Amino acid sequence: MTHSIALQFEDDVTHFIACTEDETVADAAYRHGISIPLDCRDGACGTCKSFCEQGRYDGGNYIEDALTDDEARQGFVLPCQMRAKTDCVIRVPASSTACKLRRSTLRGRLAAVDRASDTTLTFSIAVDPSIKIDFLPGQYARIQVPGTSESRAYSFSSSPGNHNASFLIRDVPNGKMSTYLRQFARVGEPVTFDGPYGAFYLRKIERPLLMLAGGTGLAPFLSMLNSMVAEELLHGDGDQRVKHHSIRLIYGVTRDDDLVGLEQLDRLTEQLPQFGYVTCVADSGSAHPLKGYVTQHITSENLHEGDVDIYVCGPPPMVGAVRNWLSEKGVKPENFFFEKFAPATAMS
Fold first, then answer.
1. Residue 98, in any domain of the structure
2. From CA 165, how far away is CA 183, in angstroms rounded?
3. Distance from first CA to last CA of the chain, Å, rounded?
4. How far apart (Å, rounded) are the C-alpha atoms in residues 290 and 284?
5. DSSP alpha helix (H) spans, the chain
6. CA-closest candidate to residue 181, choices 266, 121, 128, 267
């Protein structure tokens, strides 16, 4: 049986490899042109020590000096000995360049482009149906602006494993990608993108989740939630680790016109009974029932006395404000994952 292994490198580059159950992860990586740093292949040196964030595996044979029993219990592995039993996510303590990794570049065609609101655009790229677009839900791609040598980074809003990738972005006046999509884009035109990138992605769900989105920071959460739905469909009766934990999203924007994706979120609440969301608008003149910032709408029930994984995606001031709010409240979540983005004219 063959499993998909996501190798997450220190420079936030992720590469997916196929690994059979009778080969080690290091051997599978080498077969894909990736040389995970190691000084032996018999579990003696510990040079290749990595961390398996998700999945089941046989740790293989090694000596205590290479990997202690305590480290093994925590999830540390030696890729030169490890054999995957399921799909896995492995954090490799090295940069992708040090491992001679070449990022995956895909060429597709613009499948759709729409205006979600006066301030927001959505678009999708389709690749050959024989190709799967692999990434971890929450990661991003760098997309080349057609007709230029420049590229822009956008989070996937779709779930991985399909041949169609979707994106939700802010329409920035005079922004290169925004201007292309708004004025010149035509369905069917070629588009090139590469990746995936980023350390902001959905980890194994072991406790309640609190997701905090600012503006188009909603995109990676749509990817995460859509991937959960895909998992439930794949497993028939659902992935039990997801079903037993609450998932709450607080989605904040500046003005009423910035609220998008609500139909998708409503659909997701039907597909994921454990999921719920609220929206808020910072503009004091808004007619929206909930005003203010996301931190003003976090409840004690959302925090589970700290037994919660918090994911935040939004502008840098928002991420900083959430950190400060948690510190002032004396709340230390089990995990705090974040992605900052700064939509400026020169970058969009």
1. no
2. 21
3. 43
4. 10
5. 25-31, 69-74, 176-179, 219-234, 240-243, 262-271, 300-303, 316-329
6. 121
Asked whether residue 318 is domain-assigned, the answer is yes
| Domain endpoint, select from 148, 172, 197 | 197
Cβ-based neighbours of 274, under 8 Å, separated by 6 or more:
242, 243, 244, 245, 246, 247
> Edge-to-edge strand order for the sheet containing 50-54?
14-20, 2-8, 88-91, 50-54, 76-77
Tell me the C-alpha distance between 218 and 225, whole Å: 11
Q: Is residue 348's pLDDT more than 50? A: no
Of 37 and 14, the structure prediction assigns the larger pLDDT to 14
**Is the whole model's pTM more than 0.90, yes or no?**
no
Residues 80 and 121 in one domain: no
Q: Are 209 and 245 in contact (CB under 8 A)?
A: yes
Token pair for 279: 């929206």
Mean pLDDT along residues 258-272: 95
Q: Output the domain CATH number for residue 272.
A: 3.40.50.80
Asked if 64 and 136 sit in the same domain, the reply is no
The residue from 40, 63, 91 where one domain ends is: 91
| Band of pLDDT at residue 345, cut at 50, 70 and 90 | very low
pLDDT confidence band for 26 (50 / 70 / 90): very high
Q: Is pLDDT of 88 > 80?
A: yes
Strands 140-144 and 151-155, how do they pair? antiparallel
Give residue 58's Cα distance to chain centre. 26
| Mean pLDDT across the chain | 91
Strands 50-54 and 335-340: unpaired
From 46-55, 90-99, 270-279, the region with the lowest mean pLDDT: 90-99
